[in-house]
Amino acid sequence: MASSINSNNIDGTFPIAGQDNDSQGFRDNFTNVKTNFTNAKAEIEDLQSKAILKSALTGTTLANSGGGAIISDFQTKDMSETRVAKGTTSGAVTINYAEGPYQTVTTSGNITLAFSNFSASGTLSKVRVEITIATVTHTVTLPSSVTLGANTLQGMVNATKVITFDATGTYILEFSTDDAGTTVAVNDLSRTRTKQDIRSISTATDHGQAGDVAGMLVVDSTNIYICTGAFDGSTVIWKKVALATIS
């Protein structure tokens, strides 16, 4: 915005030395000085409330919240992201998007993830969750809103939203949403997106299980079992191919 401070309305040549000067000149200068001080105060306070700062102003706490303002056409360098450590815990673990884009947790038992404070619908929210699995008996349950990509995660038990792990260690899941968390997508950043479905298949009568879709594979020592359709509770969807017939 253009400044309201007028540096030209002060008569710098008044009063004139060696002669009588009209007191109105003094009043005009004092009035214009006061007006400029008032305008300067308003403009400085406006900047204080809106500017992005390197450090806190004297007597204030730094709070560089953009309030949803758009930043465009910038080049960034040496930027970091906030890491939030949830510690070692079990039970409900809430991932508060407003706290930071990278959050960590170590399991001391089964955990159930929940999300809060995603950005407004129409904008993309993305958060990575680093989960350290202390023992393979610990599971991770995802919220019901995590529907995109969930049924192909390794260790997902037929789209029940419960993930099991074959080995202890650290796993990173990335969650994203563009509708404020109504629908959430998940991506496993530490393992391939291949569902390893290990269970007994009876190809003569197997109607499958909830979450089965065409293209799923199960392999044992002698056969490959191929899912040919979506589970409907009545249609046989698993077909067998003997490994011996594959050359």
What does this structure look like?
The protein has 247 residues and is mainly β. It folds into three domains: 1-57, no CATH class; 83-188; 197-247, no CATH class. Helix content is 11%, strand content 29%. The chain contains one helix and eleven strands. The strands form two sheets. Strands 1, 2, 3, 4, 5, 6, 7 and 8 form an eight-stranded mixed sheet that branches. β7 and β8 (184-188) form a beta hairpin. It starts with 22 loop residues before the first helix and ends in a 5-residue tail after the last strand.
Which regions are unreliable across 5 or more consecutive residues at pLDDT < 50? Answer: none
Q: What sort of overall outline do the alpha carbons produce when their principal axes are compared?
A: rod-shaped
Distance between the first and last residues' Cα: 75 Å
Summarize the helix and strand pattern as letters: HEEEEEEEEEEE
Q: Which structural class is indicated by helix and strand composition?
A: mainly beta
Number of domains: 3
Sheet bearing the most strands, described? 8 strands, mixed
Task: Compute the number of helices.
Answer: 1
Per DSSP, what share of the residues sits in E-state strands of 2 or more residues? Answer: 25-35%
Q: Name the quaternary structure.
A: single chain
| Radius of gyration from CA coordinates | 32 Å
Helix share bin: 10-25%
Question: Total number of β-strand segments?
Answer: 11
Average the pLDDT over all residues and give the rounded result: 90
